[in-house]
Amino acid sequence: MKKIFALALVALGMMTANPAQAQIKFGLKGGLNITDMSMDSKVLDASNRTGFFIGPSVKFTLPVVGLGIDASALYDQREAKLKGEVDGYEADLNTKVKQQAINIPVNLRYTFGLGDIAGVYLAAGPQFGFNVGDKNFDMLKAANYKLKSTNFSVNVGAGVTLINHLEIGFNYNIACGKTGEVTGKSVATETIKNLLDSEGKSNAWQISAAYYF
C-alpha cells in the first residue's frame, strides 16, 4: 500500500515539474461489477450479484515513457443476496443488499505496445468510496445489515488501448476493512447472537470500457 502511494506521489511530482510534456485527456468510463461479498459468520452466506458503474474519467500521460495516471468519479452500484440458517432451516435473511456509491479510483499505470495504434497497460492504486444510497437493510425482525458511509479499497488490473482513444480493462477491487456489519434490534435466538458478530467485505471483479477524447 505504501509503495503505491509513493509511486503516485513521484508521478505527480514529475507531471508538475514538466507540465509542457504531460498530456491530459478526458473521457467517459463504464462497466460491470460482479460482487464478491464475503461474511465472517458461520450462519451467513452471500451470493454474488452483478452491478454497474459509470462516470467521467481523466488520464494523464507523464513525461516518462509508458507511465501515466488515471482518475475517475464513478457512480457504482453493487448487490449481494444474504442467506443463512434460522433455527435449523435455511432462509433468506434479506432479499438483497444494494450498495450505491460514488467511487474515486486513482491508478498509477504503465503502458507498452505499438505507440498510438494499440497497447497493453497495467494499473494499480487506491479507491475512495462514499455511499449515497440506503445504508440499512432489515434481516428478520431482530437485526439489520448496516453499510459504512465511506470505504477504502485498492484496485489491481490490466487492459488494452486501441487507436489512442478506446480502452477495455479488467480489474479486481479489494476492500480494505469491513464494508458493513450486522447490528441488533433484539437478541431473540442463538442465531441472532451469532449474527451480531458478523462483518462483511464487498470485493468486486470489474470489466470496463472507456473512451478518451
TrEMBL record:
<feature type="signal peptide">
    <location>
        <begin position="1"/>
        <end position="22"/>
    </location>
</feature>
<keyword id="KW-0732">Signal</keyword>
<feature type="domain" description="Outer membrane protein beta-barrel">
    <location>
        <begin position="8"/>
        <end position="213"/>
    </location>
</feature>
<dbReference type="Pfam" id="PF13505">
    <property type="entry name" value="OMP_b-brl"/>
</dbReference>
<dbReference type="InterPro" id="IPR011250">
    <property type="entry name" value="OMP/PagP_B-barrel"/>
</dbReference>
<protein>
    <submittedName>
        <fullName>Contig61, whole genome shotgun sequence</fullName>
    </submittedName>
</protein>
<dbReference type="InterPro" id="IPR027385">
    <property type="entry name" value="Beta-barrel_OMP"/>
</dbReference>
